[in-house]
């Protein structure tokens, strides 16, 4: 079996990470419901316990540590639901994941989009 593919500065989301982050991602998916978002805001600890988050996942939620959430098995699309509670968007998450400011991350996206096609 070959070693897993790595991309410097990223946490690839594969089957192992999906299993590791199942409870976290399930909880974040629940935030599609306004009632669930409100329940979370009222008692974060009880909400995390109800979904069975492990220590590292719960600690990353407490610290609002996006990179920690990714390392704990979080999928960026589900984490976006949690980020919405904090008033953040996917570009905020991308900036945090890459260690850039949001403005620098947005500029990078624009620059990448402006590249000529290579066919």
In N-to-C order, the SSE pattern is HHHHHHHHH
CATH superfamily of the domain at 15-85: Dioxygenase LigAB, LigA subunit
Number of helices: 9
Tally the beta strands: 0
- Note the overall shape: globular
Cα(first) to Cα(last) distance is 33 Å
Question: Spans with pLDDT under 50 lasting ≥5 residues?
Answer: none
Structural features, described:
By secondary structure, the protein is mainly alpha-helical. It has a domain at 15-85: Dioxygenase LigAB, LigA subunit (Protocatechuate 4,5-dioxygenase, Chain A). It has nine helices and no strands. It is globular. The mean pLDDT is 87.
For this entry, give a set of tags.
119 residues; mainly alpha; Protocatechuate 4,5-dioxygenase, Chain A
């Amino acid at each position: 079996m070959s070693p897993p593919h790595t991309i410097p500065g990223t946490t690839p989301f594969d089957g192992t990470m999906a299993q590791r982050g199942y409870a976290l991602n399930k909880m974040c998916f629940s935030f599609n419901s306004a009632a669930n978002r409100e329940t979370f805001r009222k008692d974060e600890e009880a909400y995390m316990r109800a979904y069975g988050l492990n220590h590292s996942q719960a600690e990353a939620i407490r610290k609002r540590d996006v990179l920690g959430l990714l390392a704990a098995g979080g999928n960026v699309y589900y984490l976006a639901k949690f980020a919405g509670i904090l008033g953040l968007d996917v570009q905020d998450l991308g900036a945090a994941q890459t260690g850039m400011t949001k403005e620098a991350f947005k500029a990078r996206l624009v620059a990448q989009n402006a590249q000529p096609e290579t066919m």
